[in-house]
Amino acid sequence: MKHFYYYPKIDYSDNQAVNIMVRGKIRDALLSSHALFYKYTIEDGERFDVIADKYYGNSNYVWAIFYANNIIDPEIETHKPHNQFIEYIKAKYGSIRTPNQTAHHYEYTDTLSQKTYIIDENTYYEYLGQYEEETETLKTVRIVTQFDYENELNEEKRNIVVLDKSYLKSILNELKNIFK
Known about the structure:
The longest helix has 12 residues, at 82-93. 43% of the residues lie in helices and 19% in strands. It has ten helices and seven strands.
């Protein structure tokens, strides 16, 4: 990736390597301005290099998407397509059944404010017992399984921002200045 050209070099095992642990700090004003970004929802299986090519005309600008979304490790910090997600769950929990049958946490949603709160198991059963005859209120408490929790985290990663391509040159210049 071209932006690594400006990163400092380190000696590593008798070789020179790019110090990828150094994160360039792009001007806060540049990255905090929401007018410079497009919201984007990743489709299942869509790759970042394809998105970069679509927006910037070159897949080599994938780093700009990572920068804009503060992604350091794409393997961990990006959305997993369905098949990869299922394999991740199996590797982490040993099966699909276990996380589907195990509570991660309990939630209560206040129907007036529509705010959701995490509650403990005892409070969950207390609310459930109070409202067992009121079906409308029953919808306000729920068990969030480990699978549901992991899936919600994964789905949140679908929503990214893409920097307007007219700012790519500014970012590259900023990197040059930072790493001089």
